[in-house]
Amino acid sequence: MRDYLIEKLYESSKKPYQKYFKTNQPWNIDKSQLLTYPTESLGLVLGNFLHKNNFDIQEKLEDHDIIHILTNTGVSVYEEIGMQYYLFGNGKRSLYLYMVILTGTTFYPKRINYFIQQFKRGKKAHSFHYLDFSKMLFLPVQTLQQTFNI
Questions:
Q1: Alpha-carbon distance 16 to 77, whole Å?
Q2: This protein's superkingdom (predicted)?
Q3: DSSP of 58-123
Q4: What's the pLDDT band for 18 if we cut at 50, 70, 90?
Q5: Does the global pTM surpass 0.70?
Q6: Contact by Cβ (8 Å): 144, 46
Q7: Torsion sign, CA atoms 26, 27, 33, 37
Q8: Residue 127 phi/psi, 5° resolution?
Q9: pLDDT tens, 64-107?
Q10: How far apart are CA 38 and CA 137, in angstroms?
């Protein structure tokens, strides 16, 4: 039930967040184009991630799935919250991040050790949350992970 409630909160907040808070330009690329990128490239891995999870690219939120890939974070509700803890540890600050951490911690208090672990992982990595990943789609995922100590 709490997973359902959290997902509904996300769905209801996603559109206003995209419209009013995300100022970046959409990438203007689709899943099928990504699947033509070179082996081990961020673009191909993103295309495979989207395909495997039956996701589509979310306009202005493309970086979100890149972060899943780079941090090897799953897509369950508590893992999504953990990814926000990771980003917080990595230096990201936003109202949306604070809202996810606050509601996530409230709904999943038994996962606090996982959240703390994710925060520490994010703190150990070099700051990367602000990068324009649209310009890195041809780079190998492993190179990015090694460069930023992810």
A1: 20
A2: Bacteria
A3: -TT-HHHHHHHHHHT---SHHHHHHHHHHHHHTT---HHHHHHHHHHHHH-GGGHHHHHHHHHHHH
A4: low
A5: yes
A6: no
A7: negative
A8: -60, 125
A9: 999 999 999 999 999 999 999 999 999 999 988 999 999 999 99
A10: 9
Which residue do the tokens 């604070």 mark?
98
The residue with greater pLDDT, 13 or 38, is 38
Confidence of residue 23 (pLDDT cuts 50, 70, 90): low
Q: What is the DSSP letter of 127?
A: P
Token code pair at residue 144: 């990015």
Question: CA–CA separation, 43 vs 49, rounded Å?
Answer: 10
**Cα(7)–Cα(132) distance, rounded to whole angstroms?**
27
Number of domains, the chain: 1
Q: Domain containing 22: what range?
A: 2-147
